[in-house]
Each structure stands twice: as structure tokens, then as C-alpha cells.
Amino acid sequence: VSTQSTGGYKATQGMVIYRTRVKRGGRKRPVAKGSCYGKPKSAGVKSLKIQRSIQSVAEERVGWACGGLRVLNSYWVVADAVFKYYEVICVDPAHKSIRRNPRIIWIVGAVHKHRELRALTSAGKKNRGLGKGHKYTKVIGSSRRANWKRRNTFSLKRYRLGGIFMSSLYL
Fold this sequence. Notes:
Helix content: 25-40%
Order of helices and strands: HEHEEHHHH
Mean pLDDT: 90
Distance between the termini: 72 Å
Low-confidence stretches: none
Radius of gyration: 23 Å
Strand content: 15-25%
Structural class: alpha+beta
Number of strands: 3
Largest sheet: 3 strands, antiparallel
């Protein structure tokens, strides 16, 4: 119960919990007859590791199955030898008790459709490397790619302010 409440769950109408399971282990490349055509560098089938967490995969599958619901959060439940089990907290944006609640009405907006597919849930943000503090400087600028691009783009503006100030200093 404590895990549910920290994930944002409240025992109100319009909130549901789905339990889902995801197969443990690495990701096998889905190719026909186990053969990848092309260069040997990209010929691997077995020893590949998924870049996202299994928890975000579980959220994604629930989001596909329940298209009318919004995925709020998820948490680990149990694991056996083959599967990991997660519970995914979903919210019904059309329900009156959700639309009238000022604490959760933010998820009703259309911009929050399929948050789990865009890595906006807690598990997805972890995979993107988002956070606060000195450990998360690689993603300043919303993503690793934007951060890299900003640092590696050489910009020469047509009207540069530096020349104006430097010329006024020597007058």
C-alpha cells in the first residue's frame, strides 16, 4: 500500500491498477530465422541489452492495452524465474471524480496522452537520465542529444555584440 501511495494512487473512483508481467533478461532481436543481413557489426541476435528498463516496457504495454486511460506511475511487485511483475497506476480522464479533483486534473489535458510512450513517467525519466543535481549535467537542455548538439554547434551570428563593446572600450 505504501508503494501505491508514493506512486500517486488514491482509492478514488477513476483510478485503476493493472498488474502486468514482462519477461526477464536481455532483448532478443526479432529477426527471421535468427539471421541479420548486413555488416557483422550489426549481426547480433542474443546478447543485446534493452536501453530502457523493464518497468518502462510494462508501462508501455498497459498503455497500449488501455488506450483511454492515462498511465500515472508504476512499481515493482514480485519476480520469479521467468517474469518480473509490475503494477501500473492508471487514471480515467473522462471520470467526473478525476475531472473535479484539483490535485489530479492536470492529467486530463490532451498533452498527457500516452505519457508512457514518450518516457514522461518516473521510470521513463530515469532511462532518459533526467534529474536534478551535479550527476545530471549530461541532459541539460532536455536530452542527451540536445545537450551534445548545443555544445558542438559553432555559431557565428551576423551581428555580434562583442565587436560593439570592444570598439567602445578603445575610444
